[in-house]
């Protein structure tokens, strides 16, 4: 799995410490969670308190409940890319939602659906 993370993000600090991370591919009904987690300046403490989530069985990473799929990964490589870092992760665990759950997309500054 490959993700790009801002080098100054708190998430990246946590990944550097644990070398593991979780990825939630949100469903269309998770738009409020997506908007909250994209809000600049949200509190550092308890930012997941209003978002249903669980801890992954392999890494303990927070995985959002309202997802099409969740993945737990271990960092295999990091590549600096301007203000971001490209993380390459080995997938340790995958969970899929039932058929019919549709992914939430974000394109050109707006949410969309397939």
Overall description:
By secondary structure, the protein is mainly beta. The protein is built from two helices and eight strands. A hairpin with a 6-residue loop joins strand 3 (53-55) and strand 4 (62-64). The protein starts with a strand and ends with a strand.
- Alpha carbon gap, first and last residue: 22 Å
Q: Low-confidence runs (pLDDT<50, min 5 residues)?
A: none
CATH H-level superfamily title: Electron Transport, Fmn-binding Protein, Chain A
Count the helices. How many? 2
Number of strands: 8
Strand share of the residues? over 45%
- Described by the principal axes of the CA atoms, the overall outline is globular
Q: Overall pLDDT, averaged?
A: 94
The name of the CATH architecture is Roll
* Tally of distinct domains: 1
Give short descriptive properties of this protein:
114 residues; 2 helices; Pnp Oxidase, Chain A; single chain; mainly beta; 14% helix
Provide the fold topology.
Blueprint lengths: L1 E5 L3 H9 L1 E7 L4 H7 L15 E3 L6 E3 L2 E15 L2 E13 L7 E4 L2 E4 L1
Antiparallel strand pairs: 1-6, 2-5, 3-4, 5-6, 7-8
Task: Describe this structure in a few short sentences.
The protein is mainly β and 114 residues long. It has helices at 10-18, 31-37, and strands spanning 2-6, 20-26, 53-55, 62-64, 67-81, 84-96, 104-107, 110-113.
């Amino acid at each position: 799995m490959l993700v790009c993370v801002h080098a100054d993000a708190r998430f990246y600090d946590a990944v550097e410490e644990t070398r593991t991370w979780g990825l939630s591919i949100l469903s269309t009904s998770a738009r409020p969670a997506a908007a909250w987690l994209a809000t600049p300046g949200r509190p550092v403490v308890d930012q997941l308190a209003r978002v249903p989530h669980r801890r992954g069985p392999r890494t303990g990473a927070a995985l959002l409940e309202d997802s099409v799929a969740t993945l737990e990964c271990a960092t295999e490589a990091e590549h600096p890319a301007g203000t971001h870092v490209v993380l390459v992760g080995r997938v340790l665990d995958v969970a899929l939602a039932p058929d019919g759950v549709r992914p939430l997309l974000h394109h050109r500054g707006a949410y969309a659906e397939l």
